[in-house]
Amino acid sequence: LLGDIASKSLGGVYNYVPDSNDPVQLTTVFSRTLACLITIVAQDLELTVTPFPSEATINKVDAGTYPADPVGDGSSPVTVRFGTLSSEEARSAAVELALSDRAGSRPYHATVANVLYRFTAAQGQPVTAQPEPIAIRRGAWEKVGRHYTIAAKSSHHRRRTTDKGDDDAGPYDTKRVKEYRRQVEMAGERPPPSAADDEIELEEMESAMAVKRTTRLKRWSRQWQSAVPKPGPARLVHPVRLTKHHNSDAPLGANDQKVLLELHGVSSDSRAPLDLVAVIDVSSSMMGARLDNAKKALIFLVRKLTDCDRLCIVKFDDEAAQLCQLRHVTEAARDELEVRIAGLNTCGHDTNIEAGLRTGVAVLAERKFTAGRAANIMLLSHGKEIIGNARRVDPGNVPVHTFGLGPHNNSRLLGTVASKSLGGVYNFVPDSNDPARLSKAFSRILAGLLTIVAQDLELTVAPFPEEATIKKVDAGTYPVLYNAAAGDNSSSSVTVRFGALSSEETRSVVIELALTDRTGTLPYRATVTEAMYRFSTSRGQLVTSDPEPITIRRGRKVSDMPVMPRPVETEEIRQLQADTIKEAIVKADDDKMEEAWNILAEALKKLVEARKRLLDPILDELQKELMKLLTLFKTTDLYRELGRPYAIAAAASHGRRRSAEKGDEVAGPYYTQRIAEYHEQARLAGERPPPSAADDEPEKQERAAPQRGGRCRWRSACWPS
Fold it and tell me: Domain VWFA spans what residues (predicted)?
């Protein structure tokens, strides 16, 4: 009866006290339970086990005599209620899981269930722990009288101490129980102290394990409280995602650390509507097949735009004129634009790139509706500039993508014009018998312009002065601004301006930090800097991210020469390739071809060694590029005809970390799924008209032929102006 009463309650146990000549026998029994009641640290304790239905279901839950939810079909969470828990006690539950059949798969680590517990703290605050995953590696199997009985069974079911009549300690006796038993034995000599005066507290404080347990409990409590979800509006999914790569550990002494920050464009249901100005050279150097191919490329461009995009075409020879105003590309406008494009003819003999570019910039500057719209210029020219100087034109924040057509084009001028703009790249398109060659070069840039998910993108990095200072920032050819109050760049925050970002593109920055000397301190986790980014959406709304802390554990047993993380090393090699190409260009332009060739050959040798160690696919593309450059830098004539424009386009592509046409139609390291689709559409444009951006169906093509860099589902749409 007494056993039934105890088991019917939540956490109660039955104690058996035989008759004895010992006058303190019953007091000793009372002390067992009292020691636990006075040290309760958690109430309303519950443990919830949630299976992952695709991996496992729950067959059975054995929690002793503590109440548990029915298992049901095994796919639902099961909660066990333990009630109270004292400071030295433990509660347990055995969960039998039925793992799903994975006989046809390779061995892998499977998360079969999540465990979460909650309780009420001493101050009455509810605390919920973070879910703890249960992971199992799936693979081959590996070799792996009556009153006393009732009391023993009750003790094991509750996993707490009880007296079974033999006065033995038992498996669940805690330090407090033993102390109370000692006090009972001495009760005839001196009265036992109250709970407030127990000396056991001093022993626990002196115990290193108790101190460690208390510290851990406080830390977990803070984490659990911060993890409790707060009411508020639903969180929006940003079209930009930040990733961080750095060493997790660093020595306590002063040392340098490199951090790679990457901003990735994420697929979105909407894109920024495009305001595009196509600036086309119609001077005598474009006569014949070049102008015909330019017309085909313009028609391909017109057919890819939608009615939310706007287009203006500017033609120039020794002077510039607008072929049409900036207008929405509706069905009616598309037919009219194609007629005007077909009527283009070569006119003057001289080439005035400055006039054409200045006219295109003016068209965009005079826009009345600009919110959320992505302004861009695509400039195509072959001849050398005879009149004016296009370097004098300031495009502001408008990207200018230049296309040098044919050999001996003014690649240095066109490369400078593109690099002076925010995000523009130079493209080299050699003369070819392929009428779609120029259209495919246009499609490489157009694929990014029609998938823009963020504009005015900026990344700000702020160091913690007591922990670190900034030594160097490498962001390719994107502008870096130091927000220094008194000229001290090292301790100030740094902002990198990227401009626009498309859905499959990535922008990256390598930050070199100088960590301060902490030799005299204990090991600790240091937040050395914070990163935050902001951008404008397709609706023109400004979005600012939460600060992302960069934390490094500083300790004594860390090498003074840490191994650089692979993503950081790969990024440094990629940026070094751009610097190597620029150095080789300088030597070749000074007619030092042998020195230029040796610079590229030495870079190739180092790249081959790094490729064997890092095994990153982007290094394969970099190696192919260097091998191509070595063939184009063999003679001065070959360099001036093909090598220089190829090298300038390659350096521009690496500096912007975006795809550019280099003259060989090779995919390159920044080739995206959308570029591949547009390339194919441009190739087939003579057989069937390409679909507009609104009719593109990349989902089906991506599932059929995924490209390097991952899938990016896109449903083309844009906001009206």
Answer: 275-445
